[in-house]
Model the fold of this input.
Amino acid sequence: MTDPAAVARLAAGHDAAVVPVFDRASVPGEFFPAVARALAEGLPAAGVRRLVAVGLASVLPTATGALLMDSPGYPQEWREFYVAHGAGTEALRAAAPEALDWLVLSPSGDFDHTGPGAGGYVLAPADAEARITPGDFARAVVEEAGAPSLRRAHAGVTSA
Done:
């Protein structure tokens, strides 16, 4: 997934790409920026104009403007992973040509695997207590892939 030519081959014939990737065998700080650069080059080469990448709440700003991962009491054992995800978003921001309409979409907090879906979602800043069901998050991803309302940004969503 870090080879732009491979991305172009896989994406050929599609209008949009949804990318929720991670490689456990990789070094996150190298993997996420490399994937972002490959997508930024390979998708436009294939004629793909829209990218929705799945991100993390940890690197979203809270209502105060501080990143969630920098909030008091926020778990730090995965900080290297959080920072690597953020580096991937920054690499995408730097490398994506104007021809690529991209969005990194994250849950504003975490997933709710027990509750019923609300049937919708709202944009929201990072909040460790916020929850979204997988179904509501999938709806946000699909809607943003097909009918974009957010462009060239990292945004958070929570259940409506």
User: Anything to note?
Assistant: The beta strands are 16-19, 50-54, 101-107, 110-111, 121-123, 131-132, 153-159.
